[in-house]
Structures are given as structure tokens and as C-alpha cells.
Write a structure and sequence with these properties.
- By secondary structure, this protein is of the alpha+beta class.
- About 25% of the residues lie in helices and about 30% in strands.
- The protein has an 8-stranded antiparallel beta sheet, covered by helices on one side. A 5-stranded parallel beta sheet has the order 2-1-3-4-8, with helices on both faces.
Length: about 325
């Protein structure tokens, strides 16, 4: 099976008569054609194709007609060959429109390259969906989370009352998801994180050699320590704090658990946060479905750590990177 057949037939499950929105940038023009050919073979009711105008990037909002498709269509695929945090407002506009309409199952993949096509997008998503569902059942309705690691992580946070979301890779119901997929995640209470988080794998565009140590107090990062990578992270956050809603840039936004055995650490958050045996803690924006948090910020940064032990309400869910489900 080719990657584009896996995406359309297995992950998205496109059915005859469905209205489909297909978005890429110019870097993925060939890939848009490959996806479109498989969609057309199914017999869609309508296929709306759009390529981001390079001369207008970084985009701040999707065009009105594209937002209307996101509100009204049955399925959507949004793959970009390159993008940055400067386009977060554009991406959030699509998420918001999809949520408002409530009809579209929408898959989004960012900074997609040939390696992702050959690895993560050829994954066995039936297997990934099964693992993800088991983790969801263990997290849903729970409260206190305690995370430790051999490198010194000792962090507590609360997910009480928060909905637990999944990116299983098998999309049949309305909602906004990632492809590549493989994640179970939740927005912690924004003032609940306390303690030390040691991130040893990656932040977006940062593959870590010397672990970054983040201290949380009342849900906010109050200290960042480490080497060159820690300085890079501090610089990204400091720049974000100069922008509208920048005061939310240091607030905890997400607890996520990777469930994709085929995913790799690359510095691209689309692959890194999906790696089986890792968890990620994000800071920044989460006031948008499917996070359903309350924090606004111009960034959303996922810190991926290996060999976690995660205890939920006193019960061990992950033991040194091994899932007890």
C-alpha cells in the first residue's frame, strides 16, 4: 500500500458521495495530486482543492470560502511541507471553523517530508488506534498525575474535569486530528503544574543533546536551565511574550502520551510527540478544540521526554516508558 492510499482509505475512510477539502502548500503539489487521485477514485460528492499562496505567507487566517468548507464538509486533509509558529493563527482559524460546523473529520500534518511519507504515514493505524483507546480509558475521569524520570523529572499536575482527547489515526467521527497520528492527550488545569520537568528528546525544531530542566510553579515555567538548547527555548518563549496574549506563553497547555511505534525523534513535533514510550508536556495555547483549555498564547511548544513513569490517582500507567495497559 502507498502512503496516500493509507491516508485516504485506512485513516480517513473516505466514502462515496462525501464532500472533501484538500489543502497543501506548493511544496506538496505532487502529493496533493496523489491524494486527489485516490479521492476521485472513491467518487466524492465534491472535492475542493486549495494550495496556500506562497506570496501571502505566513498566513494569519484561511480564506472565507475555505473556512466555510471546514464548517460544512465531511472530511478534510491539511498537509504542509513547511510552516512556522507565525502561521498558528491561520491553523487555529481552520480548527475553529471545523469545531463550529461540527461535521468534518479533519486531519492536519505539518512540515511533511519524504521520510514522514515513508515512515509515519505508512504506519499500521489499526494497531495505533487500539493502543490509544486503552490509554484514553485509563485517563478519562481521573485527576492527579505524577510524572518522574531517571533524569530527575518530578512533576505533578491535575486533569480533573478535563476531556481526554485522542489522535488514533483512524478518523470516522467529526473532529480535528493530526496525521501522522498516535497520541492520547489532555489539557491540565492551567495553574496545577508543580515541580521539575526534564526534557531530553526535543522541542519543536530543537533536537536535544543536553537535557532542558523546566521548573513549574502554579502552572507556569519559572526557570529554564541547561545548555545551548535551553537558551534556544528561552529565546523562543521571550519572543512570544512580546506578542498579543504573550503572557500565556509559559503556562502549561498539554499532557500527551505517544502511541505510534513507527514514529521517530526528528525535531519535527509531528513525529516526535507520537513516539511510543514518550510523553510530552506543552506550554502555551490550548484554548481551542480539541484541547478545550483556557490559556491563550501565540505559541504551543511540546517538550518530549523519554523513559517516563506516570502515575494517575495513585495507579501506575507508564513504568519507565513501558505502558501498563
Amino acid at each position: 500500500m502507498k502512503w496516500f492510499e493509507n491516508v485516504i482509505n485506512v485513516c480517513m475512510g473516505i466514502r462515496p458521495g462525501e464532500k472533501v477539502l484538500l489543502i497543501t502548500d506548493a511544496a506538496l503539489a505532487k502529493e496533493q495530486d496523489q491524494l486527489a487521485a485516490v479521492i476521485q477514485a472513491v467518487g466524492p460528492g465534491e472535492l475542493r482543492r486549495w494550495t496556500l499562496p506562497e506570496g501571502q505567507r505566513p498566513l494569519k487566517i484561511a480564506p472565507p470560502d475555505i473556512l466555510e468548507c471546514a464548517r460544512a464538509f465531511d472530511a478534510g486533509i491539511h498537509f504542509l511541507g513547511h510552516t512556522t509558529n507565525d502561521e498558528l493563527p491561520y491553523r487555529f482559524s481552520l480548527i475553529q471553523a471545523a469545531s463550529e460546523g461540527g461535521t468534518i473529520r479533519f486531519a492536519s500534518g505539518l512540515n511533511i517530508d519524504q521520510a514522514i511519507l515513508d515512515h509515519e504515514l505508512l504506519a499500521d493505524y489499526q494497531e495505533i488506534a487500539a493502543i490509544t483507546a486503552k490509554l484514553h480509558d485509563r485517563l478519562a475521569g481521573r485527576s492527579m498525575v505524577h510524572i518522574t524520570s531517571p533524569l530527575g523529572t518530578d512533576l505533578t499536575l491535575s486533569i480533573k474535569g478535563r476531556l481526554v482527547a485522542t489522535d488514533p489515526g483512524i478518523l470516522r467521527e467529526p473532529g480535528f486530528h493530526n496525521l501522522p497520528a498516535g497520541e492520547c492527550y489532555v489539557a491540565p488545569l492551567e495553574d496545577s503544574a508543580e515541580g521539575l520537568l526534564v526534557v531530553d528528546k526535543s522541542f519543536p525544531d530543537i533536537v536535544i543533546e543536553e537535557p532542558i530542566r523546566l521548573t513549574f510553579t502554579h502552572g507556569r515555567v519559572t526557570d529554564i536551565a541547561g545548555g545551548r538548547e535551553a537558551s534556544q527555548l528561552e529565546s523562543i518563549i521571550s519572543e512570544a511574550e512580546k506578542k498579543p496574549t504573550g503572557e500565556g506563553s509559559r503556562t502549561i497547555a498539554e499532557l500527551g502520551i505517544g502511541t505510534n511505534p513507527y514514529a521517530r525523534i526528528t525535531g519535527n513535533v509531528m513525529t516526535d510527540e507520537k513516539v511510543m514510550g514518550t510523553i510530552h508536556i506543552a506550554i502555551g495555547h490550548n484554548a481551542v478544540p480539541p484541547y478545550n483549555g483556557q490559556n491563550h498564547a501565540p505559541i504551543h511548544l511540546d517538550g518530549v521526554m523519554g523513559r517516563p513513569t506516570l502515575t494517575i490517582d495513585g495507579s501506575v500507567l507508564i513504568d519507565d516508558g513501558k505502558y501498563l495497559v
